């Protein structure tokens, strides 16, 4: 009767010692462990970029696709397929479209969307005017969304 109790006590003691050895020590030194949800990829300038709202990204992608289709004469489906394997810059170069023309058309498309949002009541007229002002103050250079 005592022999089974001694065996159970030894197994229990061994498992306690093993769990202390396995889980009781500090983790090895290294970079801090962070969950992937809290990490954002660094930008080209080394600063952290705030995440883009998925709805805004979707609208931007469709605007870009519509403008590229309009400027190249391709269908939207063909442009969508091209964007899978090529950046917008390559598509513009292949079809002889200047980045300035692309930027100008993107600005027109954005202005049209802002006007539609104001007309439908999603934003106020004052907010629409502020967006238009900010668009007019943007730095010079081609606009190409990545």
Query: Which class do the helix and strand fractions yield?
Result: mainly alpha
Q: Which bin fits the share of residues in helices? A: 55-70%
Discrete helix count? 6
Elements, N to C (H/E): HHHHHH
Low-confidence stretches: none
Mean pLDDT: 79
For the termini, the CA-CA separation is 75 Å
Largest sheet: none
What is the approximate shape?
elongated
How much of the polypeptide forms β-strand, as a percent range? Answer: under 5%
How much is the radius of gyration in Å? Answer: 29 Å
**Strand tally, please?**
0
Describe this structure in words.
This protein has 146 residues and is mainly α. It has a domain at 54-136. 63% of the residues lie in helices and 0% in strands. It has helices at 2-23, 54-72, 76-85, 88-94, 99-120, 125-136. Helix 2 (54-72) packs across helix 5 (99-120). The longest helix has 22 residues, at 2-23. The radius of gyration is 29 Å and the shape is elongated. The model has no long low-confidence stretch (mean pLDDT 79).
Quick recap of the structure?
The protein is mainly alpha-helical and 146 residues long.
Which short descriptors sum up this protein?
146 residues, mainly alpha, 63% helix
Write the layout of secondary structure elements.
Blueprint: H1 2-23, H2 54-72, H3 76-85, H4 88-94, H5 99-120, H6 125-136
Helix pairs in contact: 2-3, 2-5, 5-6
């Amino acid at each position: 009767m005592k022999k089974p109790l001694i065996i159970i006590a030894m197994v229990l003691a061994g498992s306690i010692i093993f769990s202390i050895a396995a889980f009781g020590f500090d983790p090895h030194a290294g970079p801090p462990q962070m969950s992937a949800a809290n990490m954002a990829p660094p930008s080209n300038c080394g600063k952290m970029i705030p995440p883009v709202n998925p709805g805004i990204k979707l609208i931007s992608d469709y605007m870009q696709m519509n403008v590229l289709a309009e400027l190249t004469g391709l269908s939207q489906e063909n442009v969508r397929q091209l964007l899978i394997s090529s950046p917008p810059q390559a598509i513009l170069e292949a079809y002889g479209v200047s980045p300035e023309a692309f930027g100008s058309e993107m600005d027109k498309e954005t202005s049209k969307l802002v006007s539609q949002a104001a007309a439908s009541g999603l934003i106020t007229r004052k907010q629409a005017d502020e967006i238009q002002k900010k668009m007019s103050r943007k730095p010079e250079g081609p606009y190409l969304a990545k």
